[in-house]
Amino acid sequence: MFQHLCRLTFLLVFLLSAGCSSSEQMNPSFPLTVREAKDALRTMRDDPKPFDRPVLIIGGWANTRMMTARLAGAVRAVGEDDIKIEHVSLLSASSFEKCRERVIQAVDRAFGDETPDVGETLEVDVIGFSMGGLVARYAAAERTDGRRRLRIRRLFTIGTPHRGADMAELGTFERRASDMRCGSALLALLNQHVPAHEYEMYCYVRLGDLIVGADNTSPPGEHPWWVPNRPFEGAHHDAFRDPRIIADIARHLRGETPFIRLPAAPLPGTKSKPPDESTSDIINRDPAGRHATAGITAQTADRDRTD
């Protein structure tokens, strides 16, 4: 009964968000139309380029391997034949700990253990959809149990609840969903600064996301790179196939100039500055103006969440 209620709730939210088109709004720091993005992707497919490193794609809370394969196919199409891409579904993983191990195993299985550092995987670029972005950050966190962690160079997140998911507030017995509530111990630890491991992070969202909430899709003190939702599409569920987001990520992976422009513009209707400037110590900006988010001590996170 509870599962049926959850499905009906998600269906209702999907239908509502599908009707929330914001086609008249253009992000001045991400001034790319759908048509321009499709043209750019076509050009990139006609002229494939190498990637600097392997790419890992991590699905969200209820995404099947079919969904992650679709995103992997879109990324693969703009790279040369020998690029390395792996995608992983977390549908049957019941906790963030199990998600973490599945991700690390996927990297080792797909790309091999080519690093002399036994504490880390091979360095990868990661594309995380929804919960997948949090799992990537959690898997990259410092560990004190001697087990391997994910080594990330760049993390691209799409609709990821970095500050919590609005839908998770409705209440659930599912542990992963509980960990995505605003103010959870896991999110608090992910968003605190621990200068042990850093990587570049780019956060994307479509306006009208009623599952996560657009203002939750970047770490505290930061604005996400937002685009208007498309008519008759789910702002959250369909964001992984948005050509504007895919085109910008593809430009990064190919070593080309991205479409996004600094500084990131605030979400429509919000203040010009991110809501929590006091947490600026969480984010370390590199010389290019991009930001790198530090990992956390995963053993501490595990302990605090089980107390």
Task: Please describe what this structure looks like.
With 307 residues, this protein is an alpha/beta fold. The protein has a single domain, classed as Rossmann fold, CATH 3.40.50. Helices cover 32% and strands 12% of the residues. It has helices at residues 2-18, 34-46, 65-76, 96-111, 131-139, 175-179, 185-190, 243-253, 298-306; strands at residues 55-58, 85-88, 124-129, 152-158, 200-206, 225-227, 283-285, 291-293. It has a six-stranded parallel sheet, sandwiched between helices. Helix 2 runs parallel beside helix 8 and helix 4 (96-111) crosses helix 5 (131-139). The longest helix is centred in the N-terminal third of the chain and has 17 residues, at 2-18. The chain is globular, with a radius of gyration of 18 Å.
What is the second-level CATH architecture? 3-Layer(aba) Sandwich
Mean pLDDT: 82
Helix amount = 25-40%
Number of folding domains? 1
Number of helices: 9
State which percent range the strand residues make up: 5-15%
Distance between the termini: 29 Å
Order of helices and strands: HHEHEHEHEHHEEHEEH
> Major sheet, described briefly?
6 strands, parallel
